[in-house]
Design goal:
Main location: secreted
Protein name: Neurturin
InterPro entries: Cystine-knot_cytokine, GDNF_fam, TGF-b_C
CATH class of one domain: Mainly Beta
Pfam family, one: TGF_beta
Organism: Oriolus oriolus
CATH superfamily of one domain: Cystine-knot cytokines
Number of helices: 5
Largest sheet: 2 strands, antiparallel
Mean pLDDT: 75
Structural class: alpha+beta
Length: about 200
Amino acid sequence: MFSGSREFSPLPSSPSSSRDSSSSSSSLPAAPRRSPRALQRHGSLLAQYSALLESYTEGEIRQLISALVERYRQAMNSGGHELPLFPRAGSRRKRARARHKPCELRELEVSVSELGLGYESDETVLFRYCSGTCEAAVRSYDLSLKSMRSRRKIRKEKVRARPCCRPLAYDDDVSFLDTYNRYYTVNELSAKECGCV
């Protein structure tokens, strides 16, 4: 990554000695100037990093490497399995993937009491529900409605300017016994098919 070794000439101690040295030995190479740390916009990523690292002194590179090694050690001691150089970027990607999952049917096994319908029962049911985003299902209606809301043509009514992931069909009715041995049947409890409405 680094080509050749850098040679540094001693700096002149006084202005008079600099004049003497420049006139007497013009063949001596001038002290190398440090290139700016700004990356060029064009070029490959490798070339950009090479240019960036070449602008650092040897001491700065050693500091960088020791900081990375220490960070790696801390990650290994805390149970990590990979070098967490950019931990936030990974979590951002996970959140972005979670936000843009398509509308789909999911299921969860819960007790009847956990459904929140007012029944007390220890029986468990398979509750199917719809989850996901409907970005791809935006229609002209949704775009126009959003425009009308932003222009304050529609103010007081509660309207949604984008489609929502909802059940298109429901599963069979669910029957169960409560804690007092009373028999109940609940309809339209679990989703059977989901879609963007």
